[in-house]
Amino acid sequence: MILRLNQSSGIPLYLQLMEQVKHAVETGALRSGDQLPTIRKLAEDLVMNPNTVARAYRELEHEGIIELRHGSGAFISESLAGVTKVTRKVQAVMQSAVERLVAAGLTGDEIRRLLENELAVLRDAKRLQGAEHE
Amino acid sequence: MILRLNQSSGIPLYLQLMEQVKHAVETGALRSGDQLPTIRKLAEDLVMNPNTVARAYRELEHEGIIELRHGSGAFISESLAGVTKVTRKVQAVMQSAVERLVAAGLTGDEIRRLLENELAVLRDAKRLQGAEHE
DNA sequence: CCAAGTGTGCTAGTTAGTTAATACACTACA
DNA sequence: TGTAGTGTATTAACTAACTAGCACACTTGG
In sequence order, which ranges of A28-107 are alpha helices (DSSP H)? Predict the structure, then answer.
């Protein structure tokens, strides 16, 4: 598995790392039990501070994507077995929607706004049902 | 038209203002030619610095949503006439997709990631066609 | 032509987020 | 059992974004 960084993109390095690991998991390039590069090793390869890699790993663990074992290393979680299949179906839904929107001439930003509006509507609806807003 | 702010949400005030103006335009609460509140007036009503309102207005102008006239005030652009009808259709596409995804148990964040992935795929596809990345 | 009301520009203070430096604690294995 | 390799924790420097203060410039209407 190959990880790359874009130092000048303005996107935080630790987020770039998280994104790439997630994407690798979703596409199947990384599977449950696979070991990730060591914090120090990866930091050296990418010429960055180990703390930054550590932060990416820590947050990935918090999201349940990976598992950190103290003296051993970082591994893809075991509980992600059936996830990819569901992901495929769900991806199809989003893909079809995005294709139609792009065909209608919308830009990425406009599509994002559309989604945010829709999510806002749902939040409002929930609030009216008496649910707590997180 | 009523504008409100959430001081403690962590979302920048000027973005909250922009969002609400955009939403009002999309829902038809504001129409082409309508005058918006004065920068100072709105700043006073909402207990914030006029510069923050000015920033929101400036960026809305840059996006073509409103038009600023120096000694006069701020007005909704004239060129937004047919926009809302297209918006309706396009909203329906997104709404249907989001409903299905929520029904599948996905959270807002997960749906956002799904969209970002899809947009990334499109960007990559375009790049391979030789198009320039903005 | 003047005065009140409008948007504009420049500058600085404040804050939150990101990254880096350094020292610590746990685990595997010879 | 000790040592090399792993993740962890604390602190500080750096950076970018947001907001505010204050002075300027344009327009309208009397």
Answer: 39-46, 50-62, 83-103
